[in-house]
Queue: 2 jobs
Job 1
Amino acid sequence: MLRKIYLMAILVVFIPATVMAQVTYDAGNRRLSVSSEGSTLREILLDVSQKTGIDVYMKPALDKEIFIEFKDQPLETAIKRIIRPLNHAFVYHGDFIRTIKIFERSESEATVKVVPGNQTLKSSSTLPADVSAGRSTPSIKELKARGLELRRQNAISQGKLEKFEEKEADREKRRLEREARRAERRAERKLMREKRRNMVEERKKIRESIAAGEEGADKQVPEILRNR
């Protein structure tokens, strides 16, 4: 009995503990903190993907242990630190990173999506599809909504929801003001184009009248020139 207990104790001592990476994402400022003492690249990227909403595709053979630690780095800089020196490509929607592809020689190698468990999801196109949702890649509007929700959840966790809502309301107000100014400029440009078009048509008619020898047609020319 004592021998069995002794053997079990040895097994417990020598069973390696699961190495977990710590990944923290500040959605409001788009900053990432990572601490890893031997977690695999896939595990870290999975955590990053779940916290940021970014899709990650990689060549499975490139998975390796990662020893790294940094705090409050800009998202793109942080991801580059995690995956270097591996070749990679970022796919953007506006100023949002939509997809990361990690490969050895060619982007076509990055076909396996990093997802929970041992699932293997593959993309059949150069621009990866959102395979987990069974639909095409999310639009800019959807990505912005996802980013807004991430920032909101982050504000809630920090007890800063009221400040966050005030900031978002102010941002929305400025956005509407910008759109109003753009609409006004578009209307002004359209009006100017119409004026120029009408002027060109009037000149054309006068030239045709002069060429046809109509009386008084040549007297209209100075008036048209004054309206240029």
Job 2
Amino acid sequence: MGRNFINFLFNRYTHYDVLNFDKSSDDSNVVDHSGYPNYEFFHGDARDWERTKKAFQDCDAFVNFTDESEPDPVRYNAVELFMNNNIFSAQILLEMCKWYRPSRFIQISTCDVYGYKEKGSFKENSPLSPINQHAASRAAAEVIAQSYIYTEVVPVIIVRISNIFGPRQKPTGPSSFIAHLITQALLDKPIRLTAAGANKRDWLFVDDCSAALDRILHFGQVGEIYNLGAGRDKTDLQICQKILQILSKPQSLINFDNKGADKSTRVSVNTRGLKELGKDYLPEWKPQHSFDKALEMTVNWYADNPEMWQART
């Protein structure tokens, strides 16, 4: 998501200086950036105070995409990893803001902090009920960020994003459900759907997500929370069937796990706050890509670029 946002900024604001600070040593997914002298990749861990301080000393705005969501349960204690990467790193970045006073600090969070909702959609003031330890760590990072608004006058804005899909996602981990389905189908491997495929979520194309974040970056109100979603629920089964149809693969690849079929889940957010943002200057925000068209674009990218994902499956 963060790398897509960088590419979006390059395409719209060629005069912006962009610093990509990442613990990963690989910035190869930031395509077409070599022609921009105002791009810099800085390899580092946000928990390294001195290195982080050096990287961010001239930054006017921070957008924190940090998200540890898929620890190896064999090698790591999941809760400890979530705390270190999702909570402590956010606090260190917020401490940086005390020194450098940026105009914006945008904390990227997830709709999973709300929990599940059978009907209707969560609003920004809905109570939080995280669905797992990962979501709990994201909620904790939010609360810490909000505290800096009052105690340190840091210009924090929080964005709770629904499920994102698009090209270049790693096909592993809980945040890459659609990428996983696509790559399993391309490899003709069985696709396991839990709860009989009845789990339902709101899916937003990554380019639409970047456009919304751009609006929040420039027009968002300090201290506000913005929900970001497409407003279109899809069951896991509907998505899987559509992917198989696009790839001309047999529906028999679907392998139902009926355990918990009577306890299917649903997550949905109300995006009214985002739609009203900048309304005096810009048209009302809405996704520019239909789900079917965006899904087809995503499927085609994975089909055309096996070298980009096969080593990650």
